[in-house]
Design goal:
By secondary structure, this protein is mainly β. The protein contains three helices and 22 strands. It has helices at residues 2-20, 190-193, 267-277, and strands spanning 37-44, 48-55, 73-78, 82-85, 87-90, 93-99, 105-111, 118-120, 123-124, 132-141, 149-157, 166-174, 179-180, 183-185, 198-201, 214-218, 229-234, 236-242, 248-254, 257-265, 297-298, 301-315. The strands form four sheets. Strands 1, 2, 5, 6, 12, 13, 15, 16, 20 and 22 form a ten-stranded mixed sheet that branches. Strands 3, 4, 7, 8, 9 and 21 form a six-stranded antiparallel sheet that branches. Strand 5 (87-90) and strand 6 form a beta hairpin. The longest helix has 19 residues, at 2-20.
Length: 316
């Protein structure tokens, strides 16, 4: 009798659970201030200029298949007086052959039918880069897996570092078909132990592969002169090789070289990246509240940022 009553109670609980979990529409008024232009551009000293133009869309409802804006007039204003009309290059990209000048100030202005004209705040390109030297230890076996091979690179910054400056640091391994930014700061560095010292930036554009990211570091967190920032990076990867029908094998490939990327950047790049790093993703979107993103675009959204960088090849 007890078993029958227990089974009956369990069935009743299951039925009530399904009844209580019926689907209902919940009306939530999400804030939206209308479609705006979304402008992004990296002003890299001594490099040609590109501006990427998209538009925002409602937080609910269908997601546009192509949010890029290709019918705009995009202008670059240098030092408040020289104005250049950029040429459309397709896929929301507007470009110019003019090289970005170190030390100059730039404004990006975009005008497109159906949108309010958007304009960046003035962004000044760092006048100088940085001087560094490095030391490398090659062919270091992994601590937990001796089949993994690493290089340990100590980077010494020789440039005076004011506390209010932002520094660029990145290291990638170069392979036959791709570059891999698999860098880990060694734990005795302040840039690895102080969370507020760094921000990580990775470019994401619709329809394009995610580009290798870069680490941005506050000047106040840089080590004193004579002390390096240590980086550990893998120098061997695995790739799939096709040997014919139904014959695919995984082979180890050593990196041909490393590329060290160093420089100075604008504060806006750091501020954007710090917030973007902390935005909820995937399942977190159901649990966490999105943060209001940083923008330096008036009457729109996005980011125009600048840097003065150097690439150094390191042979292995």
């Amino acid at each position: 009798m007890f078993l029958v009553r227990k089974a009956y109670s369990s069935c009743l609980l299951i039925v009530l659970t399904f009844i209580g979990c019926s689907e209902r529409d919940v009306a939530i008024d999400l804030p939206y201030d209308g479609d705006k232009l979304f402008v992004t551009s990296h002003l890299l000293a001594d490099a040609p200029l590109e501006v990427y133009l998209e538009h925002t869309y409602k937080p609910v409802g269908p997601i546009p298949e192509d949010p890029t804006v290709s019918n705009a007039n995009v202008y670059l204003i240098k030092d408040g007086r020289d104005t250049t009309l950029l040429a459309p290059a397709g896929n929301g990209i507007y470009a110019s052959d003019l090289l970005v000048a170190a030390g100059s100030s730039y404004v990006v202005r975009a005008i497109a039918p159906g949108y309010e004209a958007a304009q960046s705040k003035p962004v000044r390109v760092p006048a100088t880069g940085v001087e560094v030297r490095y030391e490398i230890e090659k062919n270091v076996s992994g601590v937990f897996d001796d089949r993994k091979i690493y290089a340990l690179v100590d980077v010494y910054f020789n440039t005076i570092r004011p506390e209010n400056e932002i520094f660029v640091l990145d290291l990638v391994s170069v392979y036959s078909d791709r570059n891999i930014a698999n860098n880990l700061f060694i734990n005795d560095n302040i840039v690895a132990t102080e969370e507020s010292c760094t921000a990580y930036f990775a470019l994401r554009r619709k329809g394009q592969e995610r580009q290798p990211g870069v680490t941005l570091i506050k000047g106040s967190c840089m080590p004193v002169p004579g002390n390096p920032i240590g980086i550990s990076i893998s120098t061997v990867t695995s790739r799939q090789v096709n040997y014919g029908t139904d014959s695919v094998r995984s082979e180890r490939e050593p990196a041909s070289k490393l590329v060290l990327r160093v420089g100075k950047a604008t504060q806006s790049w750091f501020d954007w990246s710090r917030i973007d790093n902390n935005q909820p993703t995937d399942i977190e979107n159901w649990l966490l509240t999105p943060q209001k993103t940083f923008t330096n675009i008036e009457n729109g959204y996005g980011l125009v940022y600048a840097s003065n960088e150097t690439l150094i090849e390191i042979e292995l």
